[in-house]
Design brief:
By secondary structure, the protein is α/β, with parallel strands linked by helices. Helices cover 52% and strands 14% of the residues. Helix 2 runs parallel beside helix 3 and helix 7 crosses helix 10.
Length: 211
């Protein structure tokens, strides 16, 4: 069972999402919040698996709420669910630790699948949000082309696996290395690319056709 908290200031939408999500017997909504601070408080109370987080909410935005939650509960997955696809919102949410970014035009089946994937540690980004990232986030980086970086074959293999949502433990088993060695290689990849997290690395891999 995947336990979920919904954070959205529109009560009707929250209740509709709750009913929809709970049609899947693998998903359960524990509570609903109206802003990021309420989501944090509910997270302290219930410690859910996944939080569906809107971006713009009164008093405390979803982005601020994501930072509060991730600072204390890094293992709790935060999936942004919003109508905003501005580069600033996407970048801030991901930089504060959001595990995915969906737009509200996503269909019901894709939403439930996204929740399950994020719970498994697989980053989920809406295609339109991904287009914004590849255009603005990565291309603004001076190391925006794979040709500018010298990767070893092992590093390229690990970039591909990270982009496919594999955990360090999964990667270690697949490439026959220790988890510590995999972590060191990923750190070196971040340093080479100037990227900050696994989601940005996944976008980089897609842009440069590593996967």
């Amino acid at each position: 069972m995947i336990n979920i908290i919904i954070a959205d200031d529109q009560t009707i939408l929250s209740e509709s999402l709750k009913q929809l999500i709970e049609l899947d017997n693998e998903l359960k909504v524990l509570a609903c919040a109206h802003n990021g601070k309420e989501a944090f408080d509910l997270c302290c109370k219930f410690v859910p698996d996944v939080i569906l987080m809107d971006v713009q909410m009164p008093d405390c935005s979803g982005i601020e709420g994501t930072k509060l939650i991730k600072d204390k509960f890094n293992h709790v997955k935060v999936l942004m669910l919003t109508s905003f696809q501005d580069e600033e919102f996407i970048s801030q949410a991901l930089s504060f630790g959001a595990d995915g970014y969906l737009l509200k035009d996503v269909n019901h089946d894709m939403l439930k699948l996204a929740i399950k994937n994020v719970h498994l540690g697989i980053p989920v980004i809406h295609k339109n949000a991904l287009a914004v990232l590849t255009k603005n986030l990565i291309c603004s980086n001076s190391l925006n082309s794979i040709s500018a970086i010298r990767f070893t074959p092992r590093e390229l293999e690990i970039v591909s696996l990270v982009a496919r949502g594999k955990t360090n433990r999964d990667i270690a088993k697949e490439v026959c290395l220790s988890c510590g060695r995999v972590a060191n290689i990923i750190t070196a990849i971040f340093e080479k690319t100037g990227l900050n997290d696994r989601t940005e690395l996944a976008v980089f891999a897609i842009k440069n056709r590593i996967i």
